Amino acid sequence: MRIGAIGIDSSHTPVFTNRINTLHKEGKTKCQVTHFWDPGNHEWQHPDGPVQSAKDVAKWREDTIKDGAKQVDTIDDLLKNVDGVMVLNISGHRHLELSVPSLARGMPTYIDKPLTCSIDQAKALLAMSRQYKARCYSASSLRFVTEIPKLDKEKIGNVIAIDAFGNGEVMDIMPGLWHYGCHSIEMVDAIFAHLGHGGGVKRVSAIASGTNTTGYHLLDMEYRDGRIARIRCDRNGAWAFGATVHGSKGIQQFVVDFAPVYTRLVEGMVKFFENGTAPVNLRDIVENVAVMQCGNESIAQGGNWVEVPVVE
Predict the structure, then answer these.
(1) Which residues contact 209 (CB under 8 A, 6 or more apart)?
(2) Within this chain, do residues 256 and 157 fall inside the same structural domain, yes or no?
(3) Is the pTM of this model over 0.85?
(4) How many domains are there within the chain?
(5) Per-residue pLDDT tens digits for 35-87
(6) Which of 90, 130, 290, 302 is the most exposed place for a label (fewest CB within 10 A)?
(7) In the prediction, which pLDDT does 50 show?
(8) Which segments of the chain are extended strands (E)?
């Protein structure tokens, strides 16, 4: 099964190409990344350095080609040569635009995090996926941590609350919660899903402290069934993610071991392309986008509660 990648402005393109093609060579998947297309406009700002380096892009392009993918000149050239698409451009602002061609052809489409940087754009993707019967999903690697399946529902009982933490890295083109907040938000979503609860965020409150390279974001989420969650996205502490789950019977907590996470993410991607089962429902990811946008609105309002729109 031929997979095409869109975007060459982050390390995800060479990393996913290498991992998928390695699995293919080992006979563990019929998927193979065979082509990629560069939509251009590589400039983005990282808090720790200058505008995106052309040297980095050149290296990512070189590594992707080295692992067996051929660069094509247009999106049409890409789509006529592949059976499924990964939209890996780093900017969530461009994900709707870059996903439309494959979705309109009914092709299975994986979209890198964040799905979009707009509730309206996320809903448009969901509508297109349904209209053209094109399988589509997006996911943070934090959905695939091995610690979540080990949480014991019987010992926890009814889930009351989750306290979670994660890195709070920010990027100028995707400020606030968009760039790295999505990781912790999706981790919390995955915990609730494993413990038998759907989404259903009713309202959020968020504050920001410090600068782009120091400080933190705090995000509170209140769910329609009474559950609550608090996430701290820190830019000063050690780079780590984890959570404490509070239940009616007991409390369990974990710190993420990242060694197996990327492998599990890629395994989920190839299974999606092969058999049609997405690791997460696209509707749930659209709600996560709504949480991030409403969280950023709350930050701008000094922490006021902002209602999260219902996603059908």
Answers:
(1) 215, 216, 217, 218
(2) yes
(3) yes
(4) 2
(5) 999 998 776 555 555 445 677 888 999 999 999 999 999 999 999 999 999 99
(6) 302
(7) 47
(8) 2-6, 32-37, 70-72, 84-87, 109-111, 136-138, 159-167, 201-209, 216-223, 228-234, 242-247, 251-255, 306-307
